[in-house]
Amino acid sequence: MTSSTSTINPHDTADLSPPSREQEPHGPPGGGRFRISGADLSASIAVFLISLPLSLGIALATGAPLQAGLVAAACGGLIAGRVGGSALQVSGPAAGLTVVTADLIVQYGWRTTCAITVLAGLAQIGLAALRVARSALAVSPAIVHGMLAGIGITIAVAQVHIVLGGTPHSAVVDNLRDLPAQLAAVQPEALLVSALTLGLLLAWPRLPGRGARLAKVLPAPLVAVAGATAAAQLAGMNLPRVDLPSWSSHALAGFPTGPVTGLVTAVVAVTLVTSVQSLLGAVAVDKLISARPGDDSHIPRSDLDRELVGQGAANVVSGALGGLPVSGVAVRSSANVAAGAVSRASTMLHGLWVIIAALLLVPVLDLIPLAALASLVAAVGVQMVSLNHIRTVTRHREIAVYIVTTLGVVLFGVLEGVALGVAVAVGVALHRLTRTRITHRETEDAHHIRVRGQLTFLAVPRLTRALHQVPRGSRAVVELDGSFMDHAAYEALQDWQTTHTVQGGEAEMTGRAGARIAEPTSPSHSCCRPWTPWRNHHCGEPAAALLPGGPPAPVRVHELADGLGAFQRDTAPHVRGELARLAREGQRPSQLFLTCSDSRLVTSMITSSGPGDLFTVRNVGNLVPAPGTESADDSVAAAIEYAVDVLKVRSITVCGHSGCGAMQALLNAPPAEAEPATPLGRWLRHGLPSLDRMAAEGGSWATLKGRPPADAAEQLCLANVVQQLEHLRAHEAVARRLAEGTLTLQGMYFHVGEAQAYLLAPSQNLFDRVVASPAPGGPHEVPGGAPGEVPGEEVADAVR
């Protein structure tokens, strides 16, 4: 239980993905049986103790019969609680509807106001059928907060008159105008009771020691009203009190009378306020549930369309029975969550307790002074003007929307104020969209073009003028300080960048923080972004050709041209600047990557590398002929010498892979063949030492993540990686750099079917897979050792 009266932010959002449950996600608890847990029972009592005085106070503030607040609370608990889509949101008469309802009662009378409530409920059910509930989340928070603040100010100003012993007017301006006269004619007893109520309301949650435990059991609104009532009775004060007439004389809804336009406007106003407040409140309740300690995964997230149905049904019944309009209520909902409720049973039980109190506690309720209820409602109204909301909208530069909405609600009404707020919000958005500042500044090393604001076609003329001030052949930095760029602006920037680069200049695009737009923010790999994930990549082949036993794909004569065209169209604009830099500076790769010619090995993809990062050598079987071997291939040796001595690479990687055709051919080759007749056969002779290594290993073969090789072909692939590393050590340039400690060797195995990489490291006969996050210290490499030393066959943890 809780005594807190703090409100929840109605515009907080949460993930609204459908829950996964064994029972119906939003049906009544327990399936066909209504089960009540101890947590729901205690939470329902806490919510009831808060709801009872607030319902009476809101009814008093609207000028409706006091029973109307109890009817709305009961309907909100029982009907919205069972039918609605939010398990723990508590519905009832809300302070946010006070101004709207009070105006309707003054203008149309009570019975027509009840009919308007019924029509608003039907409208809510119709909106739910159209599944537009999520549209409420698109309302600007500044408008919602401004509407609540305006309503809160209106409530507080009106209740001040009752606190002082007078009677309020319907308009805020009239209440402010008559306030000096009311202060001159203040009733001391009413003021004393109001002050006592406010004092208890503020002090009760702050009791120290043992009082704090008691404050968790009894909510502050109940203690404040009960304390003020007891003090008034003991002192024998003669004050206006609650007067609950007999239920037999309770007024029900009547046929609506009045101008059709006015009635339609009234229905729209009630529908708007109740729907927006309920839907945003449901989302905020989800956020409170997710932040609550413990496992609440069994509590489903809110179904907003179903919540709209529940609120509509509650309004239909409440209006028909002579109750106030119903919506989700922040104070009661937050108390329900904080009290530990676990299902909608707590909300429904709270409605049952309200009915019992309305039938059995009428003599007790009649003792409550109206000044105590008025001060309670005034405190709620003041809380609706949230300083936290004001700071938030100020930080997001929407204070104008907030102020206009608040003043509009105070001076003209809720619907008019919201309309004014929407108009200002649209104006602010258009102003931001069209207001772009472009500046040009020259420094010693570059020309800086800064674009502040959204970059649209309206700003293209000014952008091109600024860009043309950059001399040919110079370095330019364009800083984009905004969150939107349309197609026209994008093309203008790209065309200028291409032209400027071709003319010998350098153009760099940066974001607000000054980092290159094309560069990633991940510290693990700062060179380039990893490839975009893809699947079912068949380059336009007919679907039938991809099926087992299907017809072969037709030959596409222009397939290469099509691919080149796609590169020029889609990729070249993004990499042109980087390639221009590489063209000027020359290649400076950090790694020689020696791998198989297999078409399924895309080295840039599996290593997340970009242009200039890898010096790649590919051949059939990823073989490194040993120096001095008969029929040695000088092309591989030349590439190794160039990479090690000229490019000064810091590491060499030999990468084998699963399903290697070269290794399978080695296994199938006739053992006694003296001199193969084909070039492929002669080349594969460089893999014979790998066959010998596999045979010599016996049963101590290298394993993949603790499992033995799947077959002989995989066993040979692993042995071949280790053998080619030994051949590398025999090359003079490699041996020299290893002795200097400026070069490392590493082996790699890529399982194509699993898309899984394995890295080699010394000491154990184990291939370990690359995991999703870097291991402490990063991946290990095979260090240089004594000449003739055979590297071990362990693969270290690295990055998947």
From TrEMBL:
It comes from the Bacteria. This is Bifunctional SulP family inorganic anion transporter/carbonic anhydrase. It comes from Streptomyces fungicidicus.
